[in-house]
Amino acid sequence: MTEFDLIYKLLNTQSQQRADVLTGIGDDCAILSVPENHSLAVSMDTLVAGVHFPESASAFSIGYKSLAVNLSDLAAAGAIPAWFTLSLTMPAADENWVKEFVRGLFTLADKHNVQLIGGDTCKGPLSISIQAHGFVKNAMLRSGAKAGDLIYVSESIGDAALGLKSYQGDTVVDESCIKQFNQPEPRIRLGLAINDYATACIDISDGLISDITHICKQSQCGADIYLNKIPLSDAYQRHYNSKPDIIQALSFGDDYELCFTIDKSNEKTINKISRETGHNLTCIGTISTESKVRCFNQNNEIVDISRRGFEHFNG
Ligand code: ADP
Ligand code: MG
To answer: Which residues of the chain have pLDDT under 50?
Structure first.
């Protein structure tokens, strides 16, 4: 048995097997059956060690997060996840590492009924690329927001930024923030629930302001954000003794919450979806006719939050 045979064996241990996978791992191609009247939603993300996750992160959490960030893209489109492929580049075929990586990967995959259907394995610096596939009838896009729409965000943002700090030596970071950083939960159920009502949607990976800017660019509009409405977790607020670093929360990213816009007439429906899905949904602002994203403090004054150099801010 070669070292890679061992890896194929581990990758072949997923308990979740779907009937629409006609041929899975082991042949030249995976052969798949797409349900009638649906489009195929496809998304891909690469995670490089030392860039997208700390070198010291556990193999379990690397596996979990690699898939989570991809499923999060499907959630933002309102797609039902089905399959994924995996390109795994590793310096050496360490059996224990791969076992834990696969356990993390399949823990999340089985939760969402998604099956690993193939991939590629190479030797090199640790890097993981996943392509996820899902089914959707009417996908949510970034391009449908219009002036007057309300902007919502799910749950809270900022915890992942604190989670990373724990790897940089901050010893008092709450466990929940470390978990949020290592194992974000893709908001699949929420994406499906808002699909009929959201005019635009994006998952927060680059940072809330950057990601709202993506919506604005694609929708050719602006956004007014009310900083005192930004939902921060109790753990985040406690960490900063009730003076939370709001700019970090707005700009760090890696939150994997959904940010979406709705016509004002659907406000009640969104509150109902919040109750039904158990996800806090907070209105943080309004889509405007301006060509930029503006942030306001509680005195209704514009705040310049570009001091951390947002890559895409106002760009
Ligand atoms: P090929 O030479 O045709 O590219 P490989 O030897 O790379 O075949 O892969 C053999 C089989 O194992 C294929 O079905 C491929 O999809 C699967 N496979 C290889 N690497 C992975 C991986 N990292 N994850 C899932 N399946 C994999
Ligand atoms: Mg190959």
So the answer is: 309-315
φ/ψ of residue 160, rounded to 5: -65, -35
Residue bearing the CA closest to ligand 1, atom 5? 120
Pick the residue whose CA is nearest to atom 3 on ligand 1. 28
Take atom 16 of ligand 1 and give the residue whose Cα is closest: 118
What are the pLDDT digits (tens) for 180-195? 999 999 999 999 999 9
Whole-model pTM? 0.94
Q: Which residues of 204-227 are buried (b: 16+ CB within 10 A; e: fewer)?
A: bbbbbbbbbbbbbeebebbbbbbb
Among 2, 120, 121, 133, name the best residue to mutate to test ligand 1's pocket (greatest count of ligand atoms within 8 A of Cβ). Answer: 120
Report the distance separating Cα 279 and Cα 260, nearest Å: 14
- In this structure, the residues whose C-beta lies within 6 A of any atom of ligand 1 are 8, 11, 25-28, 86, 88, 116, 118-121
Digit-coded pLDDT (tens) for 144-183: 999 999 999 999 999 999 999 999 998 899 999 999 999 9
* Residue type present at position 136: V
